[in-house]
Amino acid sequence: MTGETMKLTAVPTPDAISPQRPLGAGSVTLCDGLLGERASVNRNVSLPHGFAMLSRRGALDHLKRAAGDASGRWPAPPVRDKHVEKIYDSDIYKWLEAVAWSWPVPGTVTEGFEEVIRLLQAAQQPDGYLHSWMQIHEPEARLRDWRLGGELYCWGHLFQAAVAVSRGAGRDDLLRIATGVAGYLHRSGARAPDGTPVVPTHPGIETALVELYRLTGQREHLDLARVLLGRRGYGALDGWGYGSRYFRDDVPVRQARSASGHAVMALYLMAGMVDVAVETGDREMLEVARSQWSDMITRRMYLTGGIGSRHYEEGFGDDYELPPDRAYCETCAAVAVIMAGWRLQLATGDELIADVIERVMFNAMLAGVSLAGDTFSYVNPLQIRRGHVGGVNEIPGTVRAPWFECACCPPNLMRMLATIAECVASVSPGTVHIHQYASADIAAPDDDGYPRSLEVRTGYPWSGSVQISVRSAGEREWTLAARVPSWCQAAQVEIRSADGGAESFQAGASGGIRLRRRWQDETVTITFDLRPRVIVADRRIDAVRDCVAFQRGPVVYCLEEPPAPAGTGGGQADDDIAVRPVSAIAEGALADWLPGAAGLEIRGRRFIADDEADEAEGTWPYHDLGSAPAGTWEPARYLLVPYFAWGNRGAGPMRIWLPERHEAGEHDG
Predict the structure, then answer these.
(1) How far is CA 597 from the centre of its chain?
(2) Which of 67, 76, 202, 636 has a 20 to 30 A CA-CA distance from 531?
(3) CA dihedral 118, 120, 123, 126 (to 10 degrees)
(4) Structure pTM?
């Protein structure tokens, strides 16, 4: 058992308008299984790697200098890219947060944690101000260049890290630093020295202030979060070649019902809107957030759950503008979808949101880190062409890199993996809800505080069998509610009691599974149909028209090269391939590099030009109808692998969407 224990990142107060509540601190412990294994790798490999990168790539140098070593042993670091370096502190705070959420697990590597806390204590100014870059390079410019200074963005991550250290590690040293910074911000009225109201360039501080309020009970934090949301949407952030839409500053938050602009900013802002709404009883704002969510998932989300189709602004495109080879799908955006989605799910009880979280977890999110845990991706496209030339934040010839100059994604993913168990379950009056399927031990006291414990054991997502055993249940009747994913037409449910009695039935996705009784040491086994499915896109997604994709359970598959498995034929992920309308898909093992996972073997065709030499030299790529280059389509078999695991055997072509080719005599029917 990996023993990954969850602490809480979002804890609505008792008066919040939130029908579902997260479980108590330490109530969900991940055991063996894909999510547990990924969380373990994060804890044992990614976290120490992260500290090494913070040390090696300059972030800690800035903090050491700001801490004021009088001997000059830490001279001011040279400025390479001030816009990136102004947010270096945020990477440190995200790493601290990830360590703190992982703290209770025996063996957690905490190297560097104490050193960083000491540096922050030394660097903080007497009036509470703390921002290493500004203190080194522009000490007279506090909050003056608030649009590009990065202060509020960094402080938001500081507040979240402080909450994590308090809840996860049970210590308040970072909280004292954070409340000092918050005090400085409150005294300024969140205004620049000339009195101009500050609008956070990159959202994030809003939800952090709400969590600070939830932890400390100090209302001024919640009030400031509401003020900052109210300032947004009046064009204060227009400029720098992007425009106010990029920053979600073109429309007041209560009027912004669509997903637009920078994808991560939009989702961080949505999370803050939900947090403020549930704590202030603002149902109008909550409904606006729901509208943005619906717009995003129905018009602007990739099959993997990734978001962001434009590299230029790292943001959303037009409706149904979802090109696979130009997908940006920033790893931070996948993290942000889960952050906002979890808050919205608690606030609404909508299980369709849990479906989206599941899709993002097993595809867009896990793709952001290698199986080894020490390299990361910034951008996660759905197709890589042969001879691909990397763009910004891509390293040619690689899939993932150890770190980035703008290193927002690696520590962001670390903190999400450290808390992913939080999304497994929640409670509402008289009900325990199971949202995500992973082997876990769950403690969920009833409304009177009487202990209830459940054991979930499953090989999900590779196995469709989920066993939920109720070990202690209290004296009252209560409901066990379990999600049937929307990709599953029906689930088989069997209930066995300790005396050998059994009952079974089928449940559909529309109503899920709701079992109410006075529980007495019973086991519920849910079996989902994991038969692979062929996916087609909405006709309005032009980029993948006449293409198909493949999914098994929640896992999306892709075709990648290298290597071409024995017997599958060459040209894996080549441009000259097409698949036949599929009547049967064989499942193959990937035990050599992804134990327990299922591969998908499909039939297809590969185009062989009559004169491959001429084809290789290149010809005009357009032809009159009926005069295409001569050649033949030869049969081939291809092995598809889970998308999140692509690129772990080397860089090469990859694609999720495969062109469909009908043979002579075949037709749709």
Answers:
(1) 21
(2) 636
(3) -100
(4) 0.94
Virtual CA dihedral for 465, 471, 476, 477, nearest 10 degrees? 10
Contact 438, 460 (CB under 8 A): yes
Q: Give the Å distances, CA to CA, from 7 to 107, 416, 477, 659.
A: 17, 12, 28, 45
| CATH of span 425-528 | 2.60.40
The number of CA neighbours under 13 Å toward the Cβ of 410 is 29
Domain spans of the chain, in order of start: 57-231, 425-528, 533-659
Q: Count CB-CB contacts under 10 A for residue 622.
A: 6
8 A C-beta contact, residue 631 and residue 609: yes
Contact status, residue 379 vs residue 330, Cβ threshold 8 Å: yes
For residue 80, how many other CB atoms are within 10 A of its CB? 9
354 phi and psi angles, rounded to 5 deg: -60, -35
Q: What is the pLDDT of residues 93-136, one digit of tens each?
A: 999 999 999 876 655 556 789 999 999 999 999 999 999 999 99
pLDDT in tens, 168-203: 888 999 999 999 999 999 999 999 999 999 999 999
Q: Compute the distance between CA of residue 205 and CA of residue 224 in angstroms, rounded to an integer.
A: 10
